[in-house]
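Aim 2 progress update. The chain analyzed this quarter is reproduced below.
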Amino acid sequence: MGRQLKLVTENRKARHDYTIEETLEAGIVLTGTEVKSLRGGKANIRDSFARVEKGEVFLYDMHISPYEQGNRFNHEPRRPRKLLLHKEEIRRLIGKTREKGLTLIPLKVYFNPQGRVKVELALARGKKLYDKREALRERDAKREIEKAFRDRQKLKF
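Predicted structure tokens:
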């Protein structure tokens, strides 16, 4: 069997705060101590976002904790990091992010089976407060229906 994806960090709140239009996988330019910290799972992408600048895509506010065994060559925890995408993908993202309300947010950071660090980016539209409340209501209603169905199944036996 091949190796699976090793999840480093995930932005769970993103699906609550945004409506995900589409996702894509991007490579990321890192230093050695950053990769070692990621292997230890020491990263946070909760408030991070990506932006297209001069034909390149950069990830901002991703926090990678300094590597404990690192010395003076340790990395800056919140530095902007370049994302690696094909030119066609970047061109398409430029067009999409110019649309009203669409932003690029990272959903998760993981190691692919070849051991490379990848970022799952989402083209997302921010939800308004009433959209979030509606989603919560729908989820609670669905949960209630499933609970009633389970209880009914238990009574039959």
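The chain has two domains: 6-126, 128-157. The radius of gyration is 19 Å. These observations will guide the mutagenesis experiments scheduled for the next reporting period.
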